[in-house]
């Protein structure tokens, strides 16, 4: 967890985003916010070149604030199979329970949610770091331009999505080469 600045803002890692909500004097009940921030301001890498939009719903009760957020942006990615550049939307929905004191306990239905304890002097909730982390977690390990991407020819490098090549590819598993040497008469 970060430090509280002089104006009561939770500062995580020395940067603050424009995805901030003033929670001082927040009445109990539901509150909705539509927030926007440049992707670079949140610390997203150069693949994310647009604006991050976050629809936030805060539900304040006596001892906690439940944040429900839907974040979305898009980026320019390189396909891991064919190396073509393509645009792709990235969306993440998440919930965080903020406890207003360390003595409060999350309700039974909230045990699987991220829970954070807010210091009593905190006035501004900066959700930029959470939005960044949840968007990055939504990226697959292997980013493909399309699920049926054919990739590149391993011999000549032709993009097989655009056309075929004349290469013959002998697809054998080298682990079986020792068995080929056995005489099975």
Topology:
Elements: E1 3-4, E2 10-11, E3 20-22, E4 29-38, E5 51-60, E6 64-78, E7 85-99, E8 114-117, E9 124-126, H1 128-137, H2 177-180
Parallel strand pairs: 7-8
Antiparallel strand pairs: 1-2, 3-9, 4-5, 5-6, 6-7
Fraction of residues in helix: under 10%
Number of strands: 9
Described by the principal axes of the CA atoms, the overall outline is elongated
Strand order of the largest sheet: 4-5-6-7-8
Strand percentage: 25-35%
How confident is the prediction overall: mean pLDDT?
A: 85
Terminus-to-terminus distance = 70 Å
Structural class: mainly beta
Largest sheet: 5 strands, mixed
Number of separate helices: 2
Number of spatially distinct domains: 1
List the secondary-structure elements in sequence, H or E: EEEEEEEEEHH
Q: State the low-pLDDT regions, or none.
A: 1-12
Radius of gyration: 24 Å
Q: What are the key terms here?
A:
single chain, 185 residues, mainly beta, five-stranded mixed sheet, two-stranded antiparallel ribbon, 2 helices, elongated, disordered N terminus
């Amino acid at each position: 967890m970060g430090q509280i600045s002089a104006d009561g803002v939770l500062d995580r890692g020395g940067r603050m985003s424009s995805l901030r909500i003033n929670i001082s004097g927040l009445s109990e009940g539901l509150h909705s916010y539509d927030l926007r921030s440049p992707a670079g301001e949140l610390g997203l890498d150069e693949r994310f070149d647009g604006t991050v939009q976050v629809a936030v719903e805060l539900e304040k009760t006596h001892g906690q604030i439940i944040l429900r957020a839907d974040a979305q942006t898009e980026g320019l990615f390189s396909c891991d199979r064919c190396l073509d550049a393509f645009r792709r939307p990235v969306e993440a929905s998440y919930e965080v329970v903020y406890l207003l004191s360390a003595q409060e306990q999350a309700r039974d239905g909230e045990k699987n949610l991220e829970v954070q304890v807010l210091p009593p002097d905190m006035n501004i909730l900066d959700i930029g770091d959470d939005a960044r982390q949840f968007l990055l977690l939504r990226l697959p390990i292997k980013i493909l331009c399309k699920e049926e991407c054919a990739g590149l020819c391993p011999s000549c490098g032709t993009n097989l999505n655009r056309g075929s090549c004349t290469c013959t590819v002998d697809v054998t598993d080298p682990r079986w080469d020792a068995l080929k040497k056995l005489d099975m008469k």
